[in-house]
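Hello again, I could really use a second opinion on something today. I've been staring at a protein lately and its backbone has me curious. Please have a think about how the structure follows from the sequence. I owe you a coffee for this, so here goes:
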Amino acid sequence: MKPWMIIMLIVIIVLIAVVVALYFWGKRLEKRQAEQKEQLDAAAQQVTMLIIDKKKLRLKDAGLPPIVMQNANWVMKRSKLPIVKAKVGPNMMSLIADQAIYDMIPVRKEVKATVSGLYITAVKGVRGAIEKPQGKKSFRQKLSEKYKKMSEQAAAEKKTSSKKKK
């Protein structure tokens, strides 16, 4: 057998082993995530709160209780989390928002939120529906808008020039 064939065979076997290991690791993480979701749903409460500010901050800068910092793993300590500062009753609290609903949370407005501990899982408007704000336009969207605007201007100039010739 040629040496390059042996190397290719070893590489293929290693890749298959990595894929199988990732499959089983992913299954275990899925089960763990489902259990955590059930725990969050079990402890969920509806709370009316006034949103004061929202930012993406590191865990140590967020103003959360020290027990949260102690129990966080090293990845969470270094990553930026969506933090919401809100007035719940007479208390000012720092809460962690779910990444999926962070953009929908309005600032300086009163909302009804589903809270599980320090974690906001859902938000509803107290006075009307909450609208998701429009994000930034992509470079392609900006170019297509410029193209449409220029083609409309060219068509308008064509009409005015054809009227002047008659």
User: Anything to note?
Assistant: The chain has a mean pLDDT of 91. Residues 44-125 form one domain. The first strand starts at residue 45 and ends at 58.
